[in-house]
Specification:
Blueprint lengths: L1 H23 L10 E6 L2 E6 L5 E2 L3 E5 L4 E4 L14 E4 L6 E2 L4 E5 L7 E6 L8 E6 L5 E2 L9 H26 L2
Antiparallel strand pairs: 1-2, 1-11, 2-8, 3-7, 4-5, 4-9, 6-8, 9-10
Helix pairs in contact: 1-2
């Protein structure tokens, strides 16, 4: 009877450890744009560091002046000014949002705030959205942060508790014979 209990206990503990470990491997999806921000008065430059394979015509940003979304392709290839505060520079001229392209934002004396962007055929039928933080020196690089070790710590504790319990029950069973 103790042998059956030991097998059931071992199986339950193994399933628990494996389910906790599988949760540790779950990955939060990356936002569409990884980017770096730099400031050169009066422009806040948001340099794209990812390749989301998205046509520039499917990128929209919020225009605070008219309180609506503007299509990036309508502001292509121009330097941002006080009258056209957000523009898009397609550095490789491929018509796709890609690595090293730049969103220029006229800011005046310093970068600040956020730039809400949407991705889709129009600003109301969008697939996803992201708020780009405009702070000089800021960089959003998906996956560049350190790994969260909390779940692995829990797995280690469960294993450290499980092994002595299984050994104790095994020794007890052998002594009982």
């Amino acid at each position: 009877m103790l042998g059956v209990r030991l097998k059931v206990l071992t199986s339950c503990l193994l399933v628990s450890v494996l389910s906790i470990a599988s949760g540790a491997m779950a990955v939060t999806p990356c936002p569409p744009l990884s980017y770096a921000v730099s400031f050169s008065a009066p422009l806040c430059n948001i340099t794209i560091e990812s390749d989301p394979a998205l046509p520039i015509g499917n990128l929209w940003w919020f225009n605070y002046v008219n309180q609506s979304y503007d299509q990036a392709s309508k502001h292509l290839g121009r330097t941002a000014t006080s009258t056209e505060p957000v523009t898009y520079i397609d550095r490789d001229a491929n018509g796709i949002v890609s690595h090293s392209d730049v969103i220029e934002v006229w800011q005046g004396t310093a970068c600040g705030g956020g730039l809400p962007v949407r991705f889709g055929p129009n600003p109301t039928t969008y697939t996803t959205e992201q708020d780009l933080l405009m702070q000089d020196g800021y960089r959003l690089a998906c996956g560049s942060g350190g790994q969260d070790l909390t779940v692995w710590f829990i797995v280690a504790v469960v294993i450290l508790i499980t092994v002595p319990v299984v050994l104790y029950l095994t020794l007890r069973r052998r002594r009982g014979r």
